[in-house]
Amino acid sequence: MPDSLARLDRDIAACRLCPRLVDWREQVAREKTRRFLHEEYWGRPVPGFGDPRARLLLVGLAPAAHGGNRTGRVFTGDRSGDWLFRALHKAGFANQAESTGRGDGLELSDCRVAAAGRCAPPDNKPLPEEFARCRPFLLRELRLLPRVRVAVGLGRIGFDLAYDALAEVRGFPARPRPRFAHLSEAELAPGLFLLGSFHPSHQNIFTRRLTEPMFDAVFARARALLA
């Protein structure tokens, strides 16, 4: 049977390869947090989201315990998602600036959002072996998105793992990884670019290591490269 994004999404949501992550995500979904006590949590791995014809791919770290692990949609229901979708809307990649949950009407245009890890991890820190088990999902996603011309790595890990996956799927010559920095840019092959961005995490936002103008500049550059 030919692969498809719908099939990939189902396979991701059914994955139970990492016992530590299975235990954690399901514990969070049972115990919840006071703010969302009356909500039913997703409590499973979180698939990617967006336009199947996307030329822009964002690669984040992993779902938040009370964000994607609650809502079932990547970067949705937490402060990081608020920042991300506001910026995507401003750059013309999203039809609205808010992302509160599946069914909220959000649609992405020419953009898909994914993550290097698909399960919410304890302390927001997936282990190397957990990233390795998730890697085949990102490779499949890239193969199913042949139009991608710009990838944005959100944080160093997202940047490095996006580079590794692109190298394998697109088959460009091996070389040292580009160096990650905010607004770093590397042309990996003719017409294929990798951009770096600080992750819109609580720590980066509250310390102002990442500001809205800095974040907007990433997607303005992505838009310019696609043009």
Q: How does the SSE layout of this entry go?
A:
Layout: H1 5-13, H2 19-31, E1 49-50, E2 56-60, H3 68-71, H4 79-90, E3 111-115, H5 128-143, E4 150-154, H6 156-170, E5 185-189, E6 192-197, H7 202-206, H8 212-226
Parallel strand pairs: 2-3, 2-4, 4-6
Antiparallel strand pairs: 1-3, 5-6
Helix pairs in contact: 4-8, 5-6
Largest sheet: 6 strands, mixed
Number of DSSP-assigned strands: 6
The total tally of domains equals 1
Q: Which value, in Å, is the CA radius of gyration?
A: 16 Å
Give the percentage of residues in beta strands: 5-15%
How are the strands of the biggest sheet laid out side by side?
A: 1-3-2-4-6-5
Helix and strand sequence:
HHEEHHEHEHEEHH
Backbone shape: globular
Distance between the termini: 35 Å
In CATH, the architecture is 3-Layer(aba) Sandwich
Low-confidence stretches: none
User: Which fold does the CATH topology refer to?
Assistant: Uracil-DNA Glycosylase, subunit E
Share of helix, binned: 25-40%
Q: Regarding CATH, which class? A: Alpha Beta
User: Residue-averaged pLDDT, rounded?
Assistant: 96
Number of helical regions:
8
The H-level CATH homologous superfamily, spelled out, is: Uracil-DNA glycosylase-like domain
Based on secondary structure, the structural category is alpha/beta
